[in-house]
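Hi again,

Forgot to attach this to my earlier email, sorry! This is the prediction with adenosine-5'-diphosphate bound. I've pasted everything inline since the attachment limit keeps bouncing my files.
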Amino acid sequence: MSLLVLNAGSSSLKFSLFAEQEDALLLRQHGRVEELLGESRLVATDAAGVRVEDRAFGAPLGHGGATALLLARFLDHDGIALRAVGHRVVHGGSHHAAPVRVDAAVLADLDALVPLAPLHQPHNLAPMREIAARHPGLPQVACFDTAFHRTQPDLAQRYALPERITARGVHRYGFHGLSYEFVARRLADVDAAASRGRTVVLHLGNGASMCAMAAGRSVATTMGFTALEGLPMGTRSGSIDPGIVLYLMAQGLDARAIEHMLYHESGLLGVSGVASDMRVLEASADPRAALAIDFYCYRISRELGSLAAALGGLDALVFTAGIGENSVRVREAVCRQAAWLGLGFDAAANRRHGPCLSLPGSRVRAWVIPTDEELMIAGHTRDLVPA
Ligand code: ADP
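Structure tokens for the complex follow:
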């Protein structure tokens, strides 16, 4: 039997097909339908990364059309026995603390959360609706980016706002939960003491956040009500004084213009004026590129102090996602700035990408653990849909 994982964004639908082999889940195919609203195109690679399909459609498929295309491709053409489809869903609200089987009531419930994540949630739900309509017998599972953080104490999930605003669901939800959950499980294999203790995981991709875990459970995280809070990211500002938004509104900018600036023109791109991509910044000779990297590492270090305080100390740091798994420079800067916490940094190991980045005997350990959100979703989907 196989499991299909779908991750729908605003303009692309990513997919991964896993085959069940005894207890293991093996990646068979990975790909995406891109330009969903333009000249759509399907690109797929096998587990070794070899391209197995590259097809242009010359017209927009939309989210529903792309979902129908993928299901027809696997079910009709490849004759695959699909056990279930797992979906990445950005928002599970305050009550979804675990993945759920999708039915009409769950779909309605998730639809009610659209105002909390208007840029992502509608896209996540479109493939579910398509499958429910065309293949009502095919089980579906929704896996949430917010769910992992529901173990946080009430204090960590609050803003200091009036109760009438809090009651409308304005809390800190946190994101990247599927990545943190995957890393928490892997950490148990490489550093059992840290996985039972106090760890800060740094998910540093185009989006970036950090999570404080006590015994593998989230107790605090840098992202909040939206995926805009916390660290500066590729093009997102991270935390800023909310007074800046009020100032810009008073100057005549409307909500859409401010939203565009905060989501798409800020962060590493905004500071550097060069690029949002860490590889490009690291290769650039422009002093503003170096400034952007320095600022990024400085903000990480400040948040690390805050999360270590929430944990009451620190046993390990874990780097993951594109920058965390690959950037020798960012890891070195962050680890050196964490010397005060008791981290003895091993520069040679860092150049080899670890996996252990700390010196023997270092009180705080540091690790590189590659994340795999799709595999996490496939595992949850299998667990919720009996064979
Ligand atoms: P997303 O959040 O879109 O999944 P990724 O986790 O793939 O993003 O991370 C993308 C980021 O990782 C980009 O800034 C990219 O430059 C960075 N990155 C990837 N490889 C390297 C590398 N070798 N050195 C530095 N940064 C890298």
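The pocket of adenosine-5'-diphosphate is lined by residues 205-207, 234, 277-279, 282, 321-323, 326-327 (CB under 6 Å). The CA atoms of residues 5 and 206 lie 21 Å apart.

That should be everything now.

G.
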